[in-house]
Here is the input.
Amino acid sequence: MYGTGLAKGLRLTLRHFVESYIDDLRYGFRKYHHSTDNFGIRQGTQTKGVITVQYPDEKIAVPERFRFVPFLIVEDDDHPTRSGKDWCTSCGICAKVCPPQCIWIVRGNDPDTGRPVPEPEGFFIDIDICMNCGYCAEYCPFDAIKMDHDYELASYDRTSHHIHDKEKLSKPNSYWRSIAPTRAYDEMLVRGTWEHKDAAKEARRGSASSRASSPQPAAQQAASAAAAETAAVSAAVEAETVATAATAEGATPWSEDDAKREERRRKALERKAKRAARGG
Ligand code: SF4
Ligand code: SF4
Here is the structure.
């Protein structure tokens, strides 16, 4: 029948309208009090009716996988050895894969030698061109660039405010862990450490070299030398015993496997000689 869909739609709208008032009565208008505590009630799963979010006083929490303009991870200020250091090694992969090509990287150089160092001197993203695809974050081999949750970036001057430089892009690692705890944890499992890949590698290298260079205590050295000598003497005695037993029985000291191997070798040499003769 014509108009059934329309009637159904209007009924639904009416139901939401009525439920809004019932909800007001149920919560005693507490939900209209603009405080953070009441926002949970206003936007709770039990809430029914038509809801208006009073933005910007109230904001709906974004899901963890929400992605907006990228940012660069730097080490937290309280990091014991790498405070404020970039995770980015300026490898340039993100700039290469970025579809609209809105990333510019200036690689750092060692001031003494002039040779490139694995740190970006400059990093720029034009956020008006960025389409928030997240490719840069997906491809970065050092987990150094991540998609942000901060979507309030409007301004009156696009030239000075919408080209994000390194200073604006850099955010501490703890920030990433706070906005995306599950993803940060998964990445840590893949990396095998909460630390930057290179920092973890350096730490491993450092501990290995300190182990190698640390002097062995004299008593331990003497004990190892004695153990090695004993093992050598036992091996020599065992070998001599086997040889003596074999000679006493009149048997060849070779095992059957050795004989077979020698036979195969002889035949292979014969075949090789024949091939060489044919070729000549
Ligand atoms: S953010 Fe990642 S992919 Fe981009 S230059 Fe830095 S290390 Fe390379
Ligand atoms: S999110 Fe996409 S468009 Fe934006 S900088 Fe990264 S790769 Fe480029």
Observations:
- The chain is about 50% helix and 10% strand.
- The radius of gyration is 36 Å.
- Confidence is low (pLDDT under 50) at residues 224-256.
- Residues 242-280 form one domain.
